[in-house]
Amino acid sequence: MTEHSTDLSTKQHSFNFHGNASEFFGIWIVNILLTIVTFGIYSAWAKVRTNTYFYGNTELDGDRFEYLAKPMQILIGRIIAVVALIAWTILSGINPIAAIVCGLLLALALPYLSVRNMRFDARITRYRNVRFNFEGSYSNAYLNILVKPLAAYALIIASSFGFSALLMESHPVVAIIGGILLFTLTAVFGYAWVMVGMASYVVNGYRYGGKPFSAELNMVEYAKIAALGGALFLGSFILGFLLIIGLGMFDVLQALFTGDVIDPETQMTSVFALLAGYLYMFFIGFVIAAFVKTRIRNYLFSKTQIDNTLQLVSNMTLGGYLALIITNLLLTIFTLGLGRAWADIRHAQYMASATQLDGDLALMAVQDHNLEACNAIADEMVDAFDINLNIV
Amino acid sequence: MTETVKGHLIAPQNSTKHAAELTLGSNGFIILKSEAHQYQCQLDAVTLSDALGSMPRNMTFASGWVFISSDGNKLNTWINRHSKTPLLVRLERNLLLICLATVVTALTAYGLYVYAVPKAAKWVASHLPVELSRELGEQGLTMLDEMGFEASKLEQKEQDKLQLRFDDLINKLKEQGVEFTHPPKMTLRFASDGANAFALADGTVVLTDAMVKLANEKLQLEGVILHELGHVHKEHVMTNLVQTAILSITAAMVVGDSSGISDTLTSIAVIGGGLTYSRIHESEADDFAAQQLYSWHQSTEPLATLFEKLHKQQPVDLPGWASTHPALDDRIETLRHYQPPPQPTAH
Ligand SMILES: [Zn+2]
Predict the structure, then answer these.
(1) B88 burial type by CB count under 10 A (0-12 exposed, 13-18 middle, 19+ buried)
(2) Which of B49, B83, B117 is the last residue of a domain?
(3) What is the model's pLDDT at position B251?
(4) Looking at the Swiss-Prot or TrEMBL record, what is one Pfam family this protein matches (chain A) (predicted)?
(5) C or N: which end of chain B has fewer Cβ atoms within 10 Å?
(6) Is the domain of B64 the same as that of B136?
(7) Is residue B160 a part of any domain in this protein?
């Protein structure tokens, strides 16, 4: 079903996930119990056990992945990260200047932390006795993670607002419409430019043993995805609005927001209308997030090769992924969080089933590097501050 | 009796695979046969990958070569027969423990949510610098003004009278030993959308003109002011802020993942928590007001009547579970049935 212009061998290896929900539930709930009993200390061991389970049940061509991080490493990193997070929260709460300084410090540290985090994650992942590695440089990290996004923001704001401000006096209509168009255009291309920079920095930095990952990414593809995502949002927003008017709900909603007196009979309908509208917007948010994620992952993988001999393939579908995340969400909510273990397994199953590797793995003899994964501080920091780089 | 397991070998630090076969002796002796590498030893001389669920276990020999079985179950069964299953693995498979863990987790989560978080928030709120709440109070007032609140349109004479009554009330409370971390103040505002009253972080009580008119009897006004002073006395605004912060951080830590589900769940948890906690706060403030009203006038009726009037003029009354304030009906009921706490009697 997949065709590639490159002359790769026609061999296809699919990823398989062998974990199962009932077994993992036991591991998961015992992890939580021991974490509670040890006042959080066990969480480091829990993380290692969980990751070992997910890596170890992911199989490619008869071999499983391995997670190599040690609990003590994680624990030390976690303690430092939590202390930093508390200090950061308190400092930034004290006064506005401290808050700005804290924000700047975090922004400045972000590229550094990202590099350390990716390097750690790569080096603790092993497949067939060979570990992964991340060799992206710090300077390129600062360029792609900090400088380019800032430049893009500046460009978007300066061009659209500058244009509007210039023409506002003489041609207000042209100024507003032109400003909006310019904003949309620069936002789409700014997004594409930043994402391409970030994704190619990350992918091209990865190594399997000494073999490099490579990806040649095209900005136009990213711009298309962004534009379609934007159009999807706008379209569903307008559709929702038309539905409201079509159902004669407009007056009810207006009354609800302006606080006019409504007779008790329409009260219930208005509450339901509000609730339905809320759910609708919620659903739209999920659809767009799923759309962007599937399209970007499929595209990025289609461009990613290992040592120019192996080709990554992602076959995610919007419907499949959307069904997965929505059922997982419902599963988690209606079991008051206990279904979380099952949801995680389903997620891993889907992701594995949508991923494959083309080319003859057996032909590639790879030697492991001798680099150690030093400490987990950056890894835990990135988790604690929730600043993961999401390229897919 | 010996068994054989087919599989493959991977060289140390190298990804090349070699077909291999393992002969497993009944006494725990292992013979590894392969074109690339041969080895024999006792089971305790090899390093086994950690036992976890039903994951197939690998054997790393002292030479660094790793054997991977193509029949993971068969090898696992043999290993289990010849070595002790780690305690952790037995725990993770123990149905009784799993049930127990589920109950303990649910109870802990409930306990944290209902007792620990509010307690911790109260403690933190009372230890925050006074400047912070003063700052927040001023911000709150500016925000109200931005939302369309204007200077009161009541006559100056009436405003002065109200201010005097407010001061009297505070003095009366102080005489009774009720303490406030922030000296309470009162501000009057005009708002187009009806009767309302708030307490801000710095102890400011805001009454809208409509509220003053609605509470047309002296004791009704006293009741609503007392309710707001209840919020001030218990530092509810700051407590609320801290609670939200604690909840968002814990929720994000508990559900953290990559598919966007966690953000959704976090916001649900935080909104849900906010609703629950503000209901508790409303009840506490009602209780504070009821206690004072009862001890001064032997009746909580004025506040109940005022709530009834508010109930009638409120345009939309969301069902109880969705509204920030507990359903007014319930609160009116509670007020009417108020019983003062038993006073220690002197003998
Ligand atoms: Zn209140």
Answers:
(1) middle
(2) B83
(3) 64
(4) DUF898
(5) C
(6) no
(7) yes
Q: Which residue has the higher pLDDT, A200 or A369?
A: A200
Alpha carbon of B246 to those of A36, A45, B109, B266, B276: distances in Å?
17, 24, 14, 12, 14
The minimum CA-CA distance between B58 and chain A, rounded to whole Å, is 10
Written as six digits, the tokens of A1 are: 């079903």
The verdict on a CB contact (< 8 Å) between B316 and A57 is no
> Are B172 and B43 members of one domain?
no
Tell me which residue of A27, A65, A23 sits closest to A46, measured CA to CA: A27
What are the residue ranges spanned by the domains of chain A?
A: 135-314
CB within 8 Å: B12 and A259: no
Task: Give B12's pLDDT tier (boundaries 50, 70, 90).
Answer: confident
Q: What is the 3-state secondary structure (H, E, C) of chain A?
A: CCCCCCCCCCCEEEEEECCCHHHHHHHHHHHHHHHHHCCCCCHHHHHHHHHHHHHHCEEECCEEEEECCCHHHHHHHHHHHHHHHHHHHHHHHHCHHHHHHHHHHHHHHHHHHHHHHHHHHHHCEEECCEEEEECCCHHHHHHHHHHHHHHHHHHHHHHHHHHHHHHCCCCHHHHHHHHHHHHHHHHHHHHHHHHHHHHHHHHHHEEECCEEEEECCCHHHHHHHHHHHHHHHHHHHHHHHHHHHHCCCHHHHHHHHHCCCCCHHHHHHHHHHHHHHHHHHHHHHHHHHHHHHHHHHHHHHHCEEECCCEEEEECCCHHHHHHHHHHHHHHHHHCCCCCHHHHHHHHHHHHHHCEEEECCHHHCCCECCCCCCCCCHHHHHHHHCCCCCCCC
Q: Is residue B92 part of a domain?
A: no
Q: Which band of pLDDT confidence, cut at 50, 70 and 90, is reported for residue B316?
A: very low
Same domain, B40 and B181: no
What residues are neighbours of ligand 1 (ion), with CB under 5 Å? B 282, 285
Hey, are the CB atoms on A23 and B318 less than 8 Å from each other? no
Q: What is the pLDDT of residues A284-307, one digit of tens each?
A: 888 888 899 999 999 999 999 999
Residues with Cβ within 8 Å of A153's Cβ and at least 6 positions away in sequence, in order, are A190
Q: Which residue has the higher pLDDT, A193 or A272?
A: A193
CATH number at residue B32: 2.30.29.30
Per residue in A114-173, pLDDT (tens digit) is 998 999 999 999 999 899 999 999 999 999 999 999 999 999 988 888 888 888 788 888
List of chain A residues whose C-beta atoms are within 8 Å of the C-beta of residue B50: 52
For position A55, what pLDDT does the model report? Answer: 95
Q: Read off the pLDDT of each residue in B43-67 and give the average, rounded to a whole number.
A: 89
- pLDDT above 90 (res B195): no
Testing the interface with B: which of A18, A28, A30, A271 to mutate, by most B Cβ within 10 A? Answer: A30
- Using the 3D structure, point to which of B50, B83, B116 is the last residue of a domain: B83
Give residue B196's domain range: 129-336
* Pair B195, B64 in one domain: no
Q: Output the CA–CA distances (angstroms, integers) from residue A374 to A68, A112, A133, in the order listed.
A: 12, 15, 12
Dump pLDDT digits (tens) for B248-302.
Answer: 766 666 555 544 555 666 666 666 666 677 778 888 888 898 888 888 888 888 8
Q: Which residues of A touch B316 (CB under 8 A)?
A: 256, 259, 262, 267, 270-271
Question: CB A56 to CB B318 under 8 A?
Answer: no
Q: What pLDDT digit, counting tens, does each position of A155-167 carry?
A: 998 888 888 888 8
